[in-house]
Design brief:
With about 475 residues, the chain is α/β, with parallel strands linked by helices. It has 13 helices and 19 strands. Strands 2-1-3-4-5-6 form a six-stranded parallel sheet, sandwiched between helices. Helix 1 links the parallel strand 1 and strand 2. Helix 9 packs parallel to helix 11 and helix 12 packs parallel to helix 13. The chain binds 5'-deoxyadenosine and iron/sulfur cluster.
Length: about 475
């Protein structure tokens, strides 16, 4: 899963009804990927029947949850320093006779469980990504000043089945776009990655449950749904006839929902881009022409060491086939520089792959040894300066490409879904089919939540600027 996607969650908007003095308040801080954003909303849902409404400030809260991420370096340290601040807040509240329950959820909780209990006694509850449906019980049992309650098993029961049904959710939709988790966990075991250890084995939700959730979102005003999974295109949930459905088939089924206009999915693995999914890109207009397909490296030796289970050539052929199916598709990827043993020639092979593919967007990271993963203890760990220098070169090339892509859209007419209000009246921000933010001035606030054609006036480094298309505007 990628961070920094423009849509990744920020401070939660308080859900209705407005908090009143008698209600209890929950503040959730979300780190990391979109799946954590989805999980945070579900945590708010499970606490709603207990009388908790969301607040945007920890000072107001009776319950604070840090929903953490463990994918790269210093994640745990960030959590501990946040817990230091919360310890002070808890002490201040105690002076005023107010309580504060502190919970840590997500992948750091999963990985650090008992260590965190020892190191941060201020924490009352530690709950993993597969056990947060048990929060109400944990919250009810907490707060007696004893050691933290830890729930980090991978339980046999299905978390999704224990969450409130879509129509009973307080947080069903916060705007015209939404995330929907369809698959979790990963069986790929890339040697750098903690996900198979923190999120567990691959699991796909049944088609009918996903379709119900999608319909509930659409009824609540959602026009665009991003299907989430750590390995989303390995999706193999059960369909109505009891057979396993591929992601391509699921997208086809969801595309039949009236009022749902746009479908995306993330994050994919090149090995799971099957024919059905590739042809779906050519045949289903609602499937947006943007694909996040991480490659990590362009060197076969490094790909092998990473256990990615494919070569650079295999990836390039997939890209070629997707482009044949959907010529205007915009591609994005994740890259890791400085994996153990990466030579200058390996790194240059990554630059060569990037030049060949031409990305619209990308996320790149210095390799960070994750405790418990095979690569962390390998020989050939690279000095920080080498990683930093390679990251700069890689990012310079990727920024050049994304800016060139944005500029190439100037003069084009694109359908834009307006999903954010700008700072000043008359300003609205939307997203293009290619996921860039599109800024408009002097437009009616009524367009919020709608899709309208926009003529792109300028492509900038990370966004587009445009004006509403009139009938005589240039065609796409
Ligand atoms: N070090 C650096 N980057 C990592 N990622 C995952 N694990 C690591 C690690 N140990 C990156 C990969 C992945 C993205 C979500 O995070 O590029 O695709
Ligand atoms: Fe991690 Fe690899 Fe699984 Fe992606 S495919 S979640 S990088 S192990």
């Amino acid at each position: 899963m990628s961070e920094r996607t423009p849509s990744a969650g920020t401070a939660p908007e308080p859900s209705s009804p407005e908090p009143s003095a008698s209600q209890k308040k929950i503040f959730i801080k979300t780190y990391g990927c979109q799946m954590n954003v989805y999980d945070s909303a579900r945590m708010a849902d499970v606490m709603a029947p207990e009388g908790y409404v969301e607040t945007a400030s920890p000072e107001d809260a009776d319950l604070v949850i840090l929903n953490t991420c463990h994918i790269r370096e210093k994640a745990a340290e960030k959590v501990y320093s946040e817990l230091g601040r919360l310890r002070e807040l808890k002490a201040e509240k105690a002076v005023r006779g107010e309580g504060l329950v502190i919970g840590v959820a997500g992948c750091v909780a999963q990985a650090e469980g008992n260590e965190m209990r020892r190191r941060a006694p201020v924490v009352d509850i530690i709950v993993g990504p597969q056990t947060y449906h048990r929060l109400p019980d944990l919250v009810a049992r907490s707060g007696n000043g004893g050691p933290a309650l830890v729930e980090t098993e991978f339980p046999a029961e299905d978390k999704f089945e224990s969450l409130p049904a879509p129509e009973r959710r307080k947080t069903v939709a916060r705007g015209p776009t939404a995330f929907l988790t369809i698959q979790e966990g990963c069986d790929k075991f890339c040697t750098f990655c903690v996900v198979p250890y923190t999120r567990g084995a691959e699991f796909s939700r049944p088609v009918s449950r996903i379709a119900d959730e999608a319909r509930a979102l659409v009824e609540a005003g959602v026009r665009e749904i991003t299907l989430l999974g750590q390995n989303v295109n390995a999706y193999h949930g059960e369909d109505a006839s009891g057979r396993s459905s591929s992601l391509g088939a699921l997208v086809r089924e969801l595309a039949a929902i009236d009022g749902l206009d746009r479908i995306r999915y993330t994050t994919s693995h090149p090995r799971d881009m099957d024919d059905e999914l590739i042809s779906a890109h050519g045949e289903i207009g609602k499937l947006m022409p943007y694909l996040h397909l991480p490659v990590q490296s362009g060197s076969d030796a490094i790909l092998d060491q990473m256990n990615r289970q494919h070569t650079a050539e295999f990836y390039l052929r997939i890209v070629e086939r997707i482009r044949a199916a959907r010529p205007d598709i915009a591609l994005s990827s994740d890259f890791i520089v400085g994996f153990p043993g990466e030579t200058e020639a390996d790194f240059e092979a990554t630059l060569a792959l990037i030049r060949e593919v031409r990305y619209a967007q990308a996320y790149s990271f210095k390799y960070s040894p994750r405790p418990g993963t095979p690569a962390a203890t390998r020989d050939g760990q690279l000095p920080e300066e080498v990683k930093t220098e390679r990251l700069h070169r890689l990012q310079a090339l990727l920024s050049e490409q994304s800016e060139a892509f944005n500029k190439s859209l100037a003069g084009k007419r694109l359908p834009v879904l307006f999903d954010r209000r700008g700072r000043a009246p008359g300003q609205l921000v939307g997203r293009s089919p290619y996921l860039q933010p599109v800024h408009l001035d002097g437009v009616s606030a009524d367009l919020f939540g709608q899709i309208a054609d926009v003529v792109i006036e300028e492509g900038l480094a990370n966004s587009l600027r445009g004006r509403l298309a009139t009938s005589e505007a240039a065609p796409a």
